[in-house]
Amino acid sequence: MRILLSNPHQITRSGIIQLLEKEYSDVVIGEASTPEEMMDKLGSQEWDLLIMAICLSSHHAIELVGKIKKTYSKLPVIVTSVYSEDRYALQAYKANVSAHICNDSLHLQLVEAIEKAMSGHKFITQSVAEKMAEAFSYDSEKPLHELLSNREFMVFQLLALGRSVSEITQELKLCTSTITTFKYKIFEKMHIDSNAQLIRYALENELV
To answer: Percentage of the chain surpassing pLDDT 70?
Structure first.
């Protein structure tokens, strides 16, 4: 089995490699420390599985996953993340990954996730399954922006006007992490993946 492991941290890569070599005697592991190196190796060699860390800011990492799946549609992708499942899991599965694993659970879940991925199935934790059920249980007749709280809608409008997170932080006099959390909640509730989609929705629905 040929696995490409993309992670910017050497210590983390070493730990994952140790785990993989202990579990799979015939595994061949390629390493990449940057997205650019990862893309180069994806294009120059054939791989059975990609294990990719989400370390990029905003939704750029998920967008990159989407591009990889479009180009290498049959390649199973497992994403690992320092962030909680609330932050990126739903977006990752929307991008058609085989598994999303938080770094804290890697030693417990990675092997099972690999087995699922290599058999053509997805590895989904119970908590993510519940979030997926919630995400698809909303009233389809109700406009998506009506799912937002008042504060979320305020942030939504400012994002739609082209304000950056730092500008919204100053305008609402809140900390950056709070605005960032609002942004992720907005994206999750409205099933969008980028500021461009948010702006288009706001314009189409005359919300700005």
So the answer is: 91
**Would you say 16 and 7 are in contact if contact means Cβ atoms under 8 Å apart?**
yes
Beta bridge partners of 80: 53, 101
Count structural domains, the chain: 2
Residue 89 belongs to what domain range? 2-125
Q: What is the DSSP string of 151-164?
A: HHHHHHHHHHTT--
Contact 150, 172 (CB under 8 A): no
Co-location of 152 and 117 in the same domain: no
Q: Is the pTM of this model over 0.70?
A: no
Average pLDDT along the chain, 208 residues, taken 10 residues at a time: 95 95 95 94 96 69 84 94 74 87 90 96 88 64 79 92 94 92 92 91 87
Give the number of other Cβ atoms within 10 Å of residue 3's Cβ.
Answer: 22
Q: Is residue 137 part of a domain?
A: no
